[in-house]
Each structure stands twice: as C-alpha cells, then as structure tokens.
What we know:
Elements: H1 5-12, H2 22-30, H3 37-48, H4 51-55, H5 57-64, H6 68-92, H7 98-107, H8 109-142, H9 147-162, H10 165-194, H11 219-230, H12 239-243, H13 250-279, H14 295-302, H15 308-340, H16 358-377, H17 382-414, H18 428-446, H19 451-468, H20 475-481
Helix pairs in contact: 3-10, 3-13, 3-15, 5-11, 6-11, 6-13, 6-17, 6-18, 7-8, 7-17, 8-9, 8-15, 8-16, 8-17, 8-19, 9-15, 9-16, 10-13, 10-14, 10-15, 14-15, 15-16, 17-18, 17-19, 18-19
Amino acid sequence: MAISEGSAAATHNAAPGTSTTSSTQDTQRELGTGLRTRHLTMMGLGSAIGAGLFLGTGVGIRAAGPAVLLAYIAAGAIVVLVMQMLGEMAAARPHSGSFARYGKDAFGHWAGFSLGWLYWFLLIMVMGAEMTGAAAIMSAWFGVDPWIPALVCVVFFAAVNLAAVRGFGEFEYWFAFIKVAVIVVFLFIGAALIFGLLPGSTFVGTSNFIGEDGFMPNGLSGVAAGLLAVAFAFGGIEIVTIAAAESDKPRRAISLAVRAVIWRISVFYLGSVLVITFLLPYESIDNAETAADSPFTRVLDMANIPGAVGLMEAVIVLALLSAFNAQIYATSRLVFAMGRNHDAPKLFGNLSNSGVPTAAVMLSMFFAFVSVALQYFNPAGLLDFLLNAVGGCLLVVWAMIALSQLKLRPELERNGEISTVRMWAHPWLGILTLVMLAGLVLLMLGDAGSRSQVFSVVVVFGFLVLLSFATTNSPLRKKRTGLIDR
C-alpha cells in the first residue's frame, strides 16, 4: 500500500517518547530478536578484521614507514566520527536498513535506495574476493581445485544464515573470537620481543621504529600514500547497526556495541602496526601475497613459534570466512529492509517462521557465487572496474551518513528520540568529518593508482540514483501513476 509523504512525516514527528516509526516497529517485531550485545560487537570486529590486516598491512608500512601510524590514526579518526554519528541515528531509530533508512529520512527516496544498493554491491564484491582468497589457501591444503572448498563453504554459510538469528550470532561470535584472540596473543608476543623478555631476544629499542631515515622516511607524500593504502581498513563495522534491529534491546545494544567496536578495532590495528614497525625494518616489508610473507608471520618466526606459517594461514582463512559470513547477513538484511520499503521485489521482504528473510539470504548467496565466478573468469576489464568501485563506495556511504546525521539531528532532538549515543560537538565534528572525507577524495584524484576508484564509484552511484527514479516507490513515478496520497 502506498504511503504518502505527509503520512511518513507525521509518523516521524510523533510526540516525544514515541519509540520509532511504525515500519521500524513492524520490522523489529517480525525479525528475530536473538542477538546480544556481544554478538553485535564481535560481528563488527569480524567484518572489519579481514585478511587485509594480515596481508595488506605491509603496503601502508612500505609507503610511509613507521609514520603509517599517523595514517591509521587519521583513518581511524574518520571512522570513529562516522560511527558515532551512525550510532546516534541507529540508537534513536533502530532499523535493519540502517544508514539507507536514515538517508531516506533525511533526503528522500533516491538517497535510501541508492545507499542500500550501493552498500549491498560493495559487500557482494568483497565477499567474492574473500571467498576466492580463502578457497585458494584451502585448495592447497587438500590438493583440490579451488572451486570445491568455495562451493562447500558457500553452502555451509547459507545453512548458517538460514537458521534462526541466535544461532547465526553464536556462530559468528566464536568465529570472530578466535581471530581476535590471535591478535591479542600476537600483541603480547610482540611486546615481549620488543622488551627482550622472550628467550633469545634482546631489547630492540627504536632502531627500526626511527631508523636511519627517521620516523617519516618518505616525508608527507609517503604518509599520504600510506593513508590511501589504509583508508578503508576499518570498513565493515557499519554492520553493527544493521544487526542491532535483531537484538532484544536495540538502543542499549547499539550504545554498547558501537563504543566497543570503535575502540577495540583501533587498539588491534594500531597495536599490531606498532609491534611490526618496532620489530621489522620498514624497507623489508611490502604487500604479502601469501601467509609466509605476512609481517605477522615474520614476527612470530622471531619468537620461534612453531608452525607460524600454518598458523597464519589458518587465521587468514578464519578472518576471510568470518567476514564473509557477516557480510551475507548484512546484505540479506539490507535487501529485506528494501523489500519492505518497496525498493526491492516484495518477495525479499518475506520472513520464515523463525524470523529469517529466506529469499533475501538466497539472493545474497546467489550473487556470492556470481562474484566468486567473476574472480576466476574475469571478463576483460569488468572485474577491475567493479573492484575499483569498492573503496570509493565506502567514501560515499560515510559521507552520506555524516550528511544524514547533520540533517536529521534537529528532528531527532525535536521528537525526543536522541538516546545515550550522541554525536560530539555537533555540528562541528560532523562538518570536520566531511572535510576529511573530501581530503581523501582529493588524495585519490591526485594518485594515478587510486583515480580509477573515484571514476568507478561515480558511475556506479550515478547509475543507482537514476535507477531510483524508475522504481515503483519513486515519488515521481507514484505521482504519474496516482499512487501517492494527496
């Protein structure tokens, strides 16, 4: 049934104390509510700590030297501010559509439609890359073609995501917990090596951290290159606010989970990079193609940890599969929310008896297969174009989250919807976030290797905006067909 703009506005302008919009209440009542705060926290950690931390850290270090820490701090600051803004909106109006819903509330149908499908596209492409990486390692273990472990894993995770959400939450919790535990152990081992507390080790001092060329061996240009290399390392923690709609106390869960994810991820990333830059000369570090080349493996070798390569391979596979699992969940819930909002076929808004959006999960699994197939067959130029858009997609999502919060904050305050999660120094830090994101775009435009990302995401996002005006839920189309209330 069509809902007029006036009806939607009236719902949002309800008296203070009203929990959320009616559609949000329906979604929360019907979706499963088995997730707890610990599930949300680990889901955010699991989706953000992928193979990029274990294999890709070296790219930023090689570009900036130890000063890559400044790049991580800058990238982390952007994500902390974005997550605080997103957390404010999510705690005020918990919804499985998360920032896509808030984009619609702030700027209208085109923003909600475009944001939802843009993030879905981003996660689908990342899922394909992650499954390809995990399958390559597992195929070497068992001496089989990579498509076999890929097929087994995709089928297995389909079953996990088709089960009641509480079971999914527990599975993802322990999956991500193993990965986090390994990082914590790595930090302890690294600290012991730095201070010479392990047998055969001596205090390393600052010989590698400062080095002959200093803390910033490649100058500010090196830090800028390092920032481009690590800018999207924290991407994925937005999933926390999507999952919160299926918790029994969404406002409280969001408040606790957003804070926990922000600071734990910062500690894990910054702590790991600090250990690596203290123990290894920066010029000896580069992008790792295999677990044996990972700086994490090299540090464990220094501590004479037996089977360090095999251990890191197992951790990398776990990291990839954990992120893959969380992203199946997030894409299915986004499609479910869009199905309910008439931005996707109505079929995807249906739920099973256990409160699982089965059709939406199956759609995500189908495109996971398609994305994996693209990794293997790679039509000329297509895969490169799609993967290039991924980093730029995050910039668009983060910018729209900031813009939505700046636009919605007065309304949320007027309706008494603001909870314990509140953006600091509004609106100035929100504006600063947009300035920092604009700075990243300028850096990308000035870098030949990153310029194509900006072009790709402009094409993808522009296509989605145009497509939004052709959907049945578009205000323009409603007006032409007489569906909109007058």
